[in-house]
Design a protein that fits this description.
The protein has 398 residues and is an alpha/beta fold. It contains 15 helices and 13 strands. It folds into two domains: 222 residues, Glycogen Phosphorylase B (Rossmann fold), CATH 3.40.50; 164 residues, Rossmann fold. Helix content is 39%, strand content 14%. The strands form two sheets. It has a seven-stranded parallel beta sheet, with helices on both faces. A six-stranded parallel beta sheet has the order 10-9-8-11-12-13, with helices on both faces. Helix 1 links the parallel strand 1 and strand 2.
């Protein structure tokens, strides 16, 4: 049975490739998929085979409601911050699921407060820390997001919420595009499902021309954010560090950074883009800002990392890398000497390689599983009541 899906995507950068990977998998299995996104994503959406509907306004709610009214999709899939799409789906009494391309980002019992970079609490003091800091984090996010969210819900005739995350918790499923083995253990809501990472490279990287640097020295792949995060200065310190070592450095600058902003030493090559899936087959180590996508690709290739967190979820990812001993974390402001020392240490430490390989074994298994499609496609073996009331696409088209 084929179904119709409306996918509402927010943002750019590292969250887009895994979300579009979900879209591509649905299209490849014959489903009808419409993606509601900014016009800047038109080429990437088109490459999946899905239909693009460009956002007309600043928010998702009106556009999502209009698309639901005109196309009658069976299910809405929303990016984590696409609150407007969730509100519209709820108001139209249409089931929705939330795509989370990373570790689980909401407060949970037994887990450290999100956004803090804390490790897992190990005793009464740690649990007290999590309660105190967690309440502060909750207030900050509620102050920033809740008034507008409740105003929007009121416009659609929905009741007020007590906390911003309550909107996400109303989803039929929260699909975490990661492996539970990478995340910290905690008591998560019933609707949370870890469905494995999406390891696809973005289209602008898959289609890039590239060659490996010549030589037999260990290859160190460097990849910071594909968004503008003022990373040029940090990237320059990284390549200066690699210039001190007997390695071959390969930097993929990404679409947000001009390669001429970096002055590399003779043993470092700077490319605008290249497919990480291919490069990591030849690499010995990855240096990254800590984005989830780069991390899971590195571990899936059995590679440890040197991490310089820049923001967002990077510190939380770094805490998990430290817990697994799959690499070394430095400050974003680390000196070339400190970066070089960390690279040298990781290259010489079998423990980091064993830890990365263990994570890689789990990540590869989850990525190749049918966990994602089991949630998105009901079957006789795995029925889902969310689809009981929808009309199959073939009936609509007839």
């Amino acid at each position: 049975m084929k179904h119709s899906y409306l996918v509402a995507l927010t943002g750019s950068g590292g969250t887009v490739p895994p979300e579009l990977g979900v879209v591509r998998r649905l299209v490849d299995r014959g489903h009808r998929v419409t993606v509601l996104a900014e016009e800047s994503l038109a080429a990437e959406v088109t490459a999946t085979g899905a239909r693009l509907r460009s956002r007309a306004g600043a928010g998702f709610a009106r556009d999502t409601a209009a698309e639901i009214d005109s196309e009658r999709p069976d299910l809405v899939l929303a990016s984590y911050f696409a609150f407007g799409a969730m509100v519209a789906a709820q108001a139209r009494d249409l089931p929705f699921m939330v795509l989370i391309p990373g570790i689980y980002p909401l407060p949970v019992e037994g887990g450290p407060p999100p956004g803090t970079g804390f490790g897992q609490a190990g005793g009464p003091v740690g649990r007290w820390r999590d309660r105190v800091v967690g309440s502060m984090v909750q207030r900050r996010w509620d102050q920033e997001l809740l008034p507008q969210l409740n105003e929007l819900r009121a416009d659609f005739g929905l009741e007020r919420l007590a906390h911003y995350q309550d909107q996400v918790q109303l989803a039929h499923r929260q699909l975490v595009l990661s492996s539970e083995a990478f995340d910290f253990a905690a008591q998560r809501p019933d609707g949370v499902r870890y469905v494995g990472p999406i390891l696809d490279d973005p289209s602008w990287a898959r289609d890039a021309e590239w060659t490996l640097p010549e030589g037999s020295e260990p290859l160190v792949l460097v990849s910071l954010s594909s968004n503008e995060e003022h990373q040029a200065e940090c990237l320059q310190r990284i390549v200066d560090a690699l210039g001190r070592l007997p390695v071959r450095g390969l930097v993929t600058a990404g679409p947000a950074l001009d390669t001429t902003a970096i002055s590399p030493p003779s043993n470092v090559t700077v490319l605008s883009a290249a497919p990480h899936h291919e490069l990591m087959r030849h690499a010995s180590l990855v240096i990254t800002h800590g984005g989830h996508g780069t991390l899971v690709k590195a571990f899936a290739a059995d590679l440890p990392v040197v991490l310089l967190p820049h923001g967002r979820d990077h510190a939380d990812n770094a805490a998990r890398v430290r817990a697994h001993q799959a690499g070394i974390t430095l400050s974003r402001t680390a000196t070339p000497q400190q970066i070089a020392a960390a690279v040298r240490k990781v290259l010489r430490t079998p423990t980091h390689y064993r830890a990365a390989a263990e994570l890689g074994r789990v990540l590869r298994g989850d990525a190749m599983s049918d966990l994602l499609m089991r949630e998105l496609e009901p079957s006789p073996d795995h029925p889902d009541p969310v689809f009981d009331r929808v009309v199959p696409v073939r009936e609509l088209e007839s």
